[in-house]
Amino acid sequence: MWPATPSICASTRAACWFFDGASMLIAHLSDLHIKLPGRLAYNKVDTAAMLAEAVRRINALVPRPDLLLITGDLTEIGSPEEYAWLRELLAPMKMPMFVVPGNHDEREGMRAAFADGGCFPEHGFLNFAVDCGDLRLVGLDTLVPGQGGGAVCVERLAWLEDALRAAPDTPTSSRGIRRCCASCADTCTVPSSPPSAGAWR
């Protein structure tokens, strides 16, 4: 694992990660909770408007981040309509983006919505491992349908182990299992899929 230094970008409140030893800047948004147009999260928060403003401000950052990582919950209930609205809100983003599901997301709906990214496998967990310049980004799907918390089963843990061993000399950032596996906490910073390096824009 590379040492990473988190910083909060004052103009966007997005977390930006600076990795020592390489020119990689990652913007990180989490818990978007996008609902259908005109609906407020928890009857008070216009998450769509907030995301649109975050996209505008991240695009305006100087220097511009190399990529945007979005961790769940991406939507409120994981409906196809919410994912379609989310994609519309993200369309102006001017950098590659990678997404990781949260407990409010729906695995198959999310797979379909982001199928053009080339990261997710056709079946199973939404794990991915992609090379982004000097950094390898690993995403781990810890979603447990119908539950508020996440989990790492034997299959997902084995996948993560294989993903980390596949490129032992490449600096790697991984996120998604900090709450689920204390023994892996020092390697987990972002979640992951097959070695396809595609990213959607």
List its traits:
201 residues, alpha/beta, disordered C terminus, three-stranded mixed β-sheet, Purple Acid Phosphatase, chain A, domain 2, single chain, five-stranded mixed β-sheet
Number of separate domains:
1
* CATH superfamily membership: Metallo-dependent phosphatases
Helix content: 10-25%
Structural class based on helices, strands and sheet pairing? alpha/beta
Tell me the radius of gyration: 16 Å
Q: Gap between N and C termini, in Å? A: 27 Å
Q: What order do the strands of the largest sheet run in, or round the barrel if closed?
A: 1-2-3-4-5
In terms of DSSP E residues, the strand content is: 15-25%
- The ordered H/E elements are EEEHEHEHEEHE
CATH class: Alpha Beta
Average pLDDT, rounded to a whole number, is: 80
**Uncertain residue segments:** 1-6, 8-13, 176-201
> Within the CATH hierarchy, at the fold level, what is the topology?
Purple Acid Phosphatase, chain A, domain 2
By DSSP (H or I, 4+ residues per run), the number of helices equals 4
Shape: globular
| CATH-level-2 architecture | 4-Layer Sandwich
Oligomer: single chain
Reported for the largest beta sheet, the result is: 5 strands, mixed
Counted beta strands:
8
